[in-house]
Design a protein that fits this description.
By secondary structure, the chain is of the alpha/beta class. The protein has a single domain, classed as Phosphoglycerate mutase-like (Rossmann fold). 39% of the residues lie in helices and 15% in strands. It is built from seven helices and six strands. Strands 3-2-4-1-5-6 form a six-stranded mixed beta sheet, with helices on both faces. The chain starts with 8 loop residues before the first strand and ends with a helix.
């Protein structure tokens, strides 16, 4: 069992940025999608067609918002901005190449100067997800890797796994146990049952 009891949902980490490509920490710095990131968002949109998504909820940061807009255009669904789903602020580490401090941050051992603790990010994200995921029909959340690590922790998963850019994940709970499945795998399973 976990402390995260939201309805099943889709999660999509924003498409790639130039900083993602070189493993720089972005945090609250608003970096735009690069050409590969736009292509990833377009591919994610295609993978999400026919999934019954009734709403898209996005972080306000441009890289997530743009990804959400690309998907929304393909699905014909509106984008709702949720400020609490913004990426963690990594303070003095924003713009730096990922370092040892990041693993320590996910374990709650360090708080970057001028940044947020892992616990603080989790404390804002989990209640926001409970709120925005309430209602009928599957919803898509478009946000960030660091933020999603707090969700993974709430689901009972390791926080040391990097969520890939632009890959839709079906987040489902059965008997209190969460699972994460890439959209391509859910499609393959559905085809196997035909």
């Amino acid at each position: 069992m976990t402390d995260f009891s939201a309805p099943d949902f889709w999660f999509l980490r924003h498409g790639e940025t130039d900083w993602n490509a070189v493993h720089r920490t972005q945090g609250s710095t608003d970096i735009a999608l690069n050409a590969n990131g736009v292509a990833q968002a377009e591919a994610a949109a295609a993978a999400l067609v026919g999934r019954g998504i009734v709403a898209i909820i996005s972080s306000p940061l441009g890289r997530a918002r743009r990804t959400a807009e690309i998907v929304a255009q393909r699905l014909g669904v509106a984008v709702h901005i949720e400020p609490e789903l913004r990426e963690a602020s990594f303070g003095v580490h924003e713009g730096e190449t990922m370092g040892d401090w990041f693993a320590a941050w996910t374990r709650g051992e360090v708080v970057p100067e001028g940044g947020e603790s892992f616990a603080a990010v989790r404390a804002r994200v989990i209640p926001a997800l409970h709120r925005v995921l309430a209602g009928n029909g599957p919803r898509l959340v478009v946000a960030h890797g660091g933020m999603f690590r707090t969700v993974r922790a709430a689901m009972g998963f390791s926080t040391s796994v990097r969520t890939p850019n632009g890959v839709p994940l079906w987040c489902a709970r059965t008997d209190g146990v969460w699972s994460l499945t890439e959209a391509a795998a859910t499609e393959a399973a559905a085809l196997a049952n035909i």
